[in-house]
């Protein structure tokens, strides 16, 4: 036989690196998954023979396009836009759109790859995709954002569809931007369909979609703590970020009787030793979302609190850590500090916030550590429920949706236990999530043959 189907892990990763030069985030995401999948498929010939992992790590397609728009001063601005359609073996491509200056093809490929496993874990029929642009919404007027969204959709519309690819929000894209993009999609195609999720309630959106990612990350945390007959009540939590995910994670921690002592943004973190109460969270939501302000201003509004410029909050002693900002915001040394300070559980609200070194530290310390693809899946899960409601032309009640979100997070936790229980009271949630997500997508791919 000329070609061996069994490439070993190192050869596989060398190939991924060679084929994706200058794409470190994508390589990192693939490696984190491959570390677990290689052990799982060691004795499963068919996955090797059909090159399943190699195929999942090669996006179905990457669409790159120019986005031109006119700023308020009349200057013509040019940005790059992308849609990465990673895998649609188990449903239409699904995943958010990110507008942030750090967006590159590598970042979107890693996010679309992660999304493939995350969406499989929800149990809903959704494939994996992601899109976005290096457009920086910070400091732009609402009209500028509208014009950018319209221009972005003028290309994107031909690649998406309710049964093809259903984008949503992510960093820099919230309800307002989804509105502008939905309006433009409808204007071009004359179709009112569930082509985007995260829509407003008046025009096909779902209740609790806004809260779902943050709440879901805390439900997952509760499920993890329950394996040790413990709970959030009375625990001190350190949270990074101050956007939609962070503020709703904080809200749920407070509702469950925990104490949140930090929030952050790209300029630094605030420390509030008395605890960030619901009133304070409401202030942050209004300040960050509506006024587009800095988290630093929290200290002027609430005396007795401190701002730490240029720092992340992982040095503040805590029981629980919830990284809810962005990728690679929690590095190996931060993980070592958290472990040394006695942190017992980490639930990721962001996508890949912990770097590979940090992941290895958490695994070695055997603490309760949930990777984002498991713990932050609540957002896309409610997006999936929004799609169902749109298809059925109906709307479920808040109580029904809350229960469905809780059930889905409990289901993901159970899947992680199935594949990640290492015995002796330790669950490797990274391994559990990777294998459960992979298996579902892989088995669907096997059914389709070589396509
Ligand atoms: N951007 C979110 C995520 O990372 C949500 C995606 C969606 O709702 O499609 O999962």
From TrEMBL:
Q: Where is the Glutamate/phenylalanine/leucine/valine/L-tryptophan dehydrogenase C-terminal domain?
A: 206-449
- What SUPFAM superfamilies is this protein classified in? Aminoacid dehydrogenase-like, N-terminal domain, NAD(P)-binding Rossmann-fold domains
GO biological process annotations for this chain's record? glutamate biosynthetic process
Keyword line:
NAD, Nucleotide-binding, Oxidoreductase
Binding positions for NAD(+) per the UniProt entry: 213, 244
Q: Name one Pfam family in it.
A: ELFV_dehydrog
Q: Which domain of life is it from?
A: Bacteria
Q: Which GO terms describe its cellular component?
A: cytosol
Any single GO molecular-function term of the entry would be: nucleotide binding
Known PROSITE patterns for this protein?
Answer: GLFV_DEHYDROGENASE (PS00074)
Q: Where is this site: Important for catalysis?
A: 170
Q: Which reaction does it catalyse?
A: L-glutamate + NADP(+) + H2O = 2-oxoglutarate + NH4(+) + NADPH + H(+)
The active-site annotation reads: 130
The UniProt annotation places substrate binding at: 94, 115, 118, 169, 383
Q: What does this protein do?
A: Catalyzes the reversible oxidative deamination of glutamate to alpha-ketoglutarate and ammonia.
The record's listing under NCBIfam families reads:
PRK09414.1
The record's comment on protein family reads:
Belongs to the Glu/Leu/Phe/Val dehydrogenases family.
Spell out the subunit comment. Homohexamer.
User: Which protein is depicted?
Assistant: Glutamate dehydrogenase
User: Whose protein is this, by species?
Assistant: Novosphingobium colocasiae
